[in-house]
Specification:
- The complex is a heterodimer of chains A (412) and B (346).
- Chain A is α/β, with parallel strands linked by helices and 412 residues long.
- In chain A, the strands form seven sheets. In chain A, strands 1, 4, 5, 6, 8, 9, 10, 11 and 12 form a nine-stranded mixed sheet that branches. A seven-stranded parallel sheet of chain A has the order 14-17-20-23-26-31-34, with no helix packed on it. In chain A, strands 15-18-21-24-29-32-35 form a seven-stranded parallel sheet, with helices on one face.
- In chain A, a hairpin with a 2-residue loop joins strand 27 and strand 28.
- Chain A contains eight helices and 35 strands.
- Chain A folds into two domains: 4-250, Spore Coat Polysaccharide Biosynthesis Protein SpsA, Chain A; 278-411, 3 Solenoid (UDP N-Acetylglucosamine Acyltransferase, domain 1), CATH 2.160.10.10.
- Chain A is 20% helix and 30% strand.
- Chain B is an alpha/beta fold.
- Chain B has two domains: 2-218, Spore Coat Polysaccharide Biosynthesis Protein SpsA, Chain A (Alpha-Beta Complex); 241-342, 3 Solenoid (UDP N-Acetylglucosamine Acyltransferase, domain 1).
- In chain B, 21% of the residues lie in helices and 31% in strands.
- In chain B, strands 14, 16, 17, 19, 21, 23, 24 and 26 form an eight-stranded parallel sheet that branches.
- The chains are: A alpha/beta (412), B alpha/beta (346).
């Protein structure tokens, strides 16, 4: 039987700035932020757990070791067939530097193929389809690709592929001009021979450094520019195009649409995970996840696309839609929460309104008078919103008590 | 006695409400604005009321006919073919206003106060001159034209438009009483009573100031309409608290809540301070209302939140809507569930 491994690139704390203010809760790094009731990378693990012969998943990044202890313990129980470990880079090594640094660890057990998944995506993870496609071509790597709107394509790694063979002819990371509307999803399947290519890429870099007195050598290696681009040039890169859902989770606000995508997937694959309508229960619209320990008053109306975390309390006559309510949050009577993330231990008073604006694509940033207008409203940890206050299109940092209404502000 | 009410034009400042009803018929504290004035005038013995309008909506004619019968008073429309300003309408109504030698009242239709017509008449008769202007004190006189009296006298010396330095804090309250002799000063053409007639009367020492006690407000635009509502309700709380909802009632919060008995209010609501709820209004459960006006037949559904706003006749506010920032909904407007309106005019 073939043996597979998977790597999830979890990054590190310094790269989490775009995920502020939620990344300011240091106990919960971005890869563990709950979406549809589970940490972002739990969804990766779930998809990987369905691959026969996949024995080990390695999380590679440069967070403190302790950050992932609890998650790995829980995941080990939930996915008993896979061994999950965290490998910490001694410093940020770039998107491929960690892979290269831990190459012996990764190749131990002699896996045929290795999945590499970026942590910051929400996706249907068509991994089996990728494997099937991979076995039909002679490349070293299959990259998952998807089509996006032309206007936003240049925010991603853009691919140009031969239509009949899906062989990648050209790869450019975040081009200035339009190259293609086919982009990389940040999900790859590599043959183990990829490590030879990495070695070559590392050597190339070193040679360049030796020729250039202004450059210092480091162990940095970028997956996209240093590895994929030469792979495309040597015709060893192929793309599997998915029409299924995919979305980047870069900013904190993009957790809300990602939440919606996973909840809708549950409806197809695991409807038992969604909150059911009951005659004496709250009104449910569309897909809603509620942690078993959360309480929702029967007079509330929840959904669509709402996740309610552990021990959260939702009061009488509360309305929540398109939002994520995190652990221990309390929403008091008659309040309304739309397009928002309510942080851990936050308290929302009666008749309050916390509202953001939905956006169809988080890569289009709305600016007003040169200031970025946040679209999804985000309350970080332990924020208090007093009775009858409205907080609209705001980002609120931890431990703030809001006594007056605020619109379009970042509240420090 | 006789009175002339200066109604004027279409009341554009109070749109969208005045798209449906002429301004004098818009309910202020559950009573058409003009009825506050008619009742006050009837009480002091006025039997002839002239409404100076420069348009004539049929709806006003039929409603005022009803008041004629109810109050046993003659109401005449004086229709201007071109806007005649604030003095011209007096000339146009000369036949009625000058039919006897008794003084007559003139008032702007947008004014809300306690209408002390009786004291005004007595004061006017006591000084014996041609006219009396009701004056009210304001905090920031520099925004208005102010009235300066001769020292130690009620007799008006002069008018100063938007004074830079403090000379007086008394402004024209838009309520007057005149002897018919004033009619000789006014020609039938567009004329401003404030700018063209009063200064000359003051020069001849024919004009006196009567100081108004209590509240006063020009409620010609939504922001002031709401402020006027607060003033009226606060006064009602002092003078006739029995007309207001009992502050001990479970939904009343902060008092000053006027509720028509035909309206229905759901459970777990918090209403007040300064709210008027018109006839046949339906308020759902868990609704929060403060400093707002809900007009006849409107429906405010569960968990809605309204502040500083006017909800027009038969409008529907959906569940979890939030209306604030001097939003005004006209007749039959529907706001869908969960919508947020700030300073919306609909």
């Amino acid at each position: 039987m073939n043996v597979y491994k998977a790597i999830i690139l979890v990054g590190g704390p310094s790269r989490g700035t775009r995920f502020r203010p939620l990344s300011l809760n240091l106990n919960v790094p971005k890869p563990l932020f709950p979406v549809a009731g589970h940490p972002i990378i739990w969804h990766h693990l779930e998809a990987l757990s369905k691959i026969k012969g996949l024995k080990e998943v390695l999380l590679i990044g440069f967070f403190e070791d302790s950050i992932f202890h609890r998650f790995i313990d829980d995941a080990a129980r939930e996915f008993p067939k896979i061994n999950i470990r965290y490998l910490r880079e001694y410093q940020s090594l770039g998107t491929a530097g960690g892979l290269y640094h831990f190459r012996d660890e990764i190749q131990r057990g002699d896996p045929q193929q290795i999945f590499v998944l970026n942590a910051d995506v929400a996706c249907s993870f068509p991994l089996k389809e990728m494997m099937k496609f991979h076995n039909t071509h002679r490349g070293l790597c299959t990259i998952l690709g998807t089509k996006v709107a032309r206007e936003v394509a240049n925010k991603y790694g853009c691919l140009v592929a031969k239509p009949e063979s899906n062989e990648v002819l050209h790869y450019v990371e975040k081009p200035e001009s339009f190259i293609s509307d086919l982009i990389s999803c940040g999900i790859y399947l590599f043959d183990c021979a990829i490590f030879n290519e990495m070695k070559k890429a590392m050597q190339n870099k070193k040679n360049q450094v030796d020729q250039d007195q202004f450059m210092d050598h480091d162990d940095q290696l970028r997956l996209e520019q240093d590895l994929l681009r030469p792979l495309a040039e040597s015709m060893k890169l192929f793309v599997y195009v998915t029409n299924d859902f995919w979305r980047q989770i870069k900013t904190a606000g993009s957790a809300v649409p990602a939440n919606a995508l996973y909840l809708e997937q549950y409806l197809e694959t695991n409807p038992e995970r969604l909150l059911k309508k009951e005659s004496d229960g709250p009104t449910i619209v569309g897909c809603v996840y509620k942690h078993p320990t959360a309480f929702v008053d029967p007079s509330a109306k929840i959904g669509p696309n709402v996740s309610i975390g552990p021990r959260a309390v939702i009061g009488k006559g509360v309305r929540i839609k398109d939002s994520i309510i995190l652990d221990n949050a309390e929403i008091k009577a008659n309040s309304c929460i739309i397009n928002s993330i309510i942080g851990w231990d936050s308290k929302i008073g009666t008749w309050a309104r916390v509202e953001g604006t939905s956006i169809t694509n988080d890569q289009i940033v709305i600016t007003q008078n040169g200031v970025k207008v946040p679209s999804i409203t985000i309350l970080a940890k332990e924020v208090i919103v007093r009775d009858e206050i409205i907080i609209r299109n705001c980002i609120v940092l931890p431990h703030k008590e809001l006594k007056t209404s605020c619109h379009n502000e970042i509240l420090m | 006695m006789k009175a002339l009410i200066l109604v004027g034009g279409f009341g554009t400042r109070l749109r969208p409400l005045t798209l449906t009803l002429p301004k004098p018929l818009v309910e202020f504290c559950n009573k058409p604005m003009i009825l506050h004035q008619i009742e006050g005038l009837v009480k002091v013995g006025v039997t002839d009321i002239v409404l100076a309008v420069n348009y004539r909506p049929e709806i006003m004619v039929s409603l005022l006919k009803k008041y004629e019968d109810k109050f046993n008073v003659k109401i005449t429309f004086s229709v201007e073919t071109e806007p005649l300003g604030t003095a011209g309408p007096l000339a146009l109504a000369r036949e009625i206003l000058g039919k006897d030698t008794l003084p007559f009242f003139v008032l702007n239709s947008d004014i809300i106060c306690e209408f002390p017509f009786e004291q005004l008449r007595d004061f006017h008769n006591s000084h014996g001159n041609e006219g009396t202007i009701v004056v009210t004190k304001v905090e920031e006189p520099s925004k208005y034209g102010v009235i300066v009296n001769h020292s130690d006298s009620t007799c008006i010396k002069k008018f100063v438009e938007k004074p830079v330095e403090f000379v007086s804090n008394k402004i024209n309250a838009g309520i007057y009483i005149f002897n018919p002799a004033i009619l000789d000063r006014i020609e039938l053409k567009p004329t401003s009573i404030e700018k063209e007639v009063f200064p000359k009367m003051a020069e001849g020492s024919q004009l006196h100031a009567f100081e108004l006690e209590g509240y006063w407000m020009d409620v010609g635009q939504p922001k002031d309409f709401l402020t006027g509502t607060c003033l009226y309700l606060s006064n009602l709380a002092k003078k006739q608290p029995n007309l207001l909802a009992n502050p001990a009632c479970d939904y009343v919060h902060g008092g000053n809540v006027l509720v028509d008995p035909t309206s229905k209010i759901g459970k777990d609501c918090r209403i007040g301070p300064n709210v008027t709820i018109g006839p046949n209004v339906i308020i759902g459960d868990g609704v929060r209302l403060q400093r707002c006006v809900i007009l006849e037949g409107a429906r405010v559904k569960d968990f809605a939140w309204v502040k500083n706003s006017i909800v027009g006749w038969h409008s529907i506010l959906g569940r979890w809507t939030r209306l604030e920032g001097v939003s005004v909904l006209g007749d039959d407007v529907t706001v869908n569930d969960e919508i947020y309106c700030f300073a919306a005019l609909k």
